[in-house]
Amino acid sequence: MLDNCNKPEWPRASLRNGHTGKVTLRFTIAPDGRLLKQEVLQSTGDPALDEAAMKGLSACRFIPGSINGKPVQSQAMMQYVWTLE
């Protein structure tokens, strides 16, 4: 589904404060691979981490779904886990 995507940048305040968590995003992909809309289904509990995940997803290009070989608008979900190593 993902064609080109980099890891989102960790918000400095969240990193400094040791915030971690898992965010679940639902998003809609246009037939041309652009992100049309997205929403947080499950939050990390840190709005900055959720926003960073959404911002990172916005920079991605996607391979759209298809019906009979023709690209169509589709929906997908993704989880991003923020962990300190």
UniProtKB/TrEMBL annotation:
Q: Which InterPro entries match?
A: TonB-dependent_transducer (IPR051045), TonB/TolA_C (IPR006260), TonB_C (IPR037682)
The record's Gene Ontology cellular component field reads:
plasma membrane
What family does this chain come from, according to its entry? Belongs to the TonB family.
Its GO biological process terms? protein transport; transmembrane transport
Q: What is this protein called?
A: TonB family protein
Cellular location(s): Cell inner membrane
Keyword list (alphabetical) reads: Cell inner membrane, Cell membrane, Membrane, Protein transport, Transmembrane, Transmembrane helix, Transport
Q: Which Pfam families match?
A: TonB_C (PF03544)
Query: Locate the TonB C-terminal domain: which residues?
Result: 1-85
Report how it sits in the membrane. Answer: Single-pass membrane protein
Q: Which organism is it from?
A: Duganella guangzhouensis
